[in-house]
Amino acid sequence: MFRFSYSILLNSSISVNPAYLFRFTVAACLAGIAAGLAGTLSATTLHFAQHLAYDYSLGELVGRESFLTGVINAGAIRRLIVLCVCGLVAGGGWWALHRFGSPRVSIASALASPAPRMPVLTTTWHAFLQIVTVGLGSPLGREVAPRELSALAATKIVRSAGLTPPDAHMIVAAAAAAGLAAVYNVPLGGAILALEVLLKTFGRRAIATALIICTIAALVAQIGLGDEVQYKIQPVHPTLSMLALSAIAGPILGAAGYWFARLTGEAKAAAPTGKMQFFLCVLNFAVIGLLSMAYPALLGNGKSAAQLGFDGTLAIGSVAMLLVLRIAVTASSLRAGAHGGVLAPALAVGSLGGILIAFAWNAYMPAVTLGALAVVGATAFLASSMTMPLTAIVLMAELSHMNYEMLFPVVIAVAGSTGVSVFYKSRNASNRSFQIEGRVAEGRVPNTQ
Fold it and tell me: What does the pLDDT look like over 318-336, one tens digit per residue?
């Protein structure tokens, strides 16, 4: 693979001398190693926080006992206490960061800058808080922290290598995606994420760079974390009934994913940064702690809820309640000022949503496997909510090692969900354009054209 990628670099439309090409290649390899180490550090810190907080598998950070099993065995009172502590850590930690730290630079902001830079202490502390709070039970995703740490390391590497701005951006973007590739053991999914979402190009040079960095990162992380499959699903051979339902479920989940993205985006935008952030975080996580006494699967980044969906063993009432609560606690945590990703929460919501659709279908039509529709639902919902159809398909395939035949219903559903999501977004853009034109006509907004 390395020779193939290296030849693509040599055949790139960008003319470079051998010395520069050598520096570029070394920088890409170092960024991959740094991303792998960042992913390993993030995962081990997360597991340590989980095991210490809920007192399970303390002798092995990468053990066989699941987080859900650990929180259930810990007992309802301990779950409440840990979530109250989580609120104090989240509120106090992020209040202190905003009060005393330098302004935070997100990955998107760094990539938008001519010379990508991220503050070391602020970025590190921000990532650490995400990992610890998710380990304590925050319902947000853990994937942003290793991505930020990987991007931070890459900014230092490209500056030392003296790369041109386009090449520096390419490596930083690929390294950010490689952080996810490392922590979830998804090298190809990480590469597609870099190309589809961050770089927005599938040029040969970008493909080679993303593949090199994400593959190295995943291999480095495997040394410390092992070759783990994130979600365990049973092989399923799709039927005509499943294919038909996937075609129907896709647009439904696409609309739901669009509104979920709107909800979480607005919640995040409205989050406070002062003393109110501290009080809202304490209150939010205390309420989640109370809810977890009856619904322990609410805790964590959503992996537990998603796995329950893939198992297909939940009753319809439990699925509906868990779905509603999962959406509520994700949005409330972002609104309170906590930080984290929405990838794993989206997988959980989509998984549960797919099961509800399957329950309704099975009542009147030839039955489909609940767990299989959970996989279809998770992928379609993720594709719509995060606007990354190709990434969603590849990520789900790597996260679950689904059998090849499952790609047919998954792709059908993703096509439908993406089409509906694009429709909603284009309509929303048109409405905004009409509103601006109306304000210009009324003289409330200056016409700059």
Answer: 899 999 999 999 999 999 9
Nearest to 370 by CA among 234, 250, 256, 247: 234
Assess if residue 249 is contained within a domain: yes
For residue 442, being part of any structural domain is answered with: no
Q: What is the pLDDT of residues 109-158, one digit of tens each?
A: 888 888 888 999 999 999 999 999 999 999 999 999 999 999 999 999 99
Backbone φ and ψ for 387, nearest 5 degrees, come out as: 55, 55
Shared domain check, 213 and 286: no
Question: pLDDT (tens digit, 9 = 90+) per residue, 340-357?
Answer: 999 999 999 999 999 999
Rounded Cα–Cα distance for residues 61 and 51 (Å): 7
Q: Which position has the higher pLDDT, 111 or 445? A: 111
Q: Residue 13's pLDDT is what?
A: 41
Nearest partner of 124 among 149, 155, 100, judged by Cα: 149
The span from the CA of 131 to the CA of 136, in Å, is 9
Residues 251/419, Cβ–Cβ less than 8 Å: yes
Same domain, yes or no: 150 and 39? yes
- Please state the domain count of the chain: 2
| pTM beyond cutoff 0.85 | yes
Please indicate, yes or no, whether residues 250 and 289 belong to a single structural domain of this protein. Answer: yes
Residue of 228, 300, 307, 308 lying closest to 39 (CA atoms): 228
Judged against a pLDDT cut of 50, whether residue 445 lies above it is answered with: no
Residue 11 pLDDT exceeds 80 = no
- Enter the tokens of residue 187: 């090298």
d(CA 116, CA 154): 9
- Only one residue has tokens 């041109």, namely 164
Alpha carbon 90 to chain centroid, angstroms: 19
Instruction: Tell me: do 267 and 404 sit in the same domain.
Output: yes
Amino acid at 62: V
Residue 169 domain flag: yes
Would you list the DSSP string of 189-240?
HHHHHIIIIII----HHHHHHHHHHHHHHHHHHHHHH-S--SS--------H
Name the residue range of residue 141's domain: 2-225
**Mean pLDDT value across residues 82-102:** 93
148 in a domain, yes or no?
yes
Local structure of residue 365 (DSSP, 8 states)? S
Q: Is there a single domain that holds both residue 190 and residue 287?
A: no
As a whole number of angstroms, the distance between CA 361 and CA 365 comes to 6
Type of residue at 43: A
* Domain containing residue 221: CATH number: 1.10.3080.10
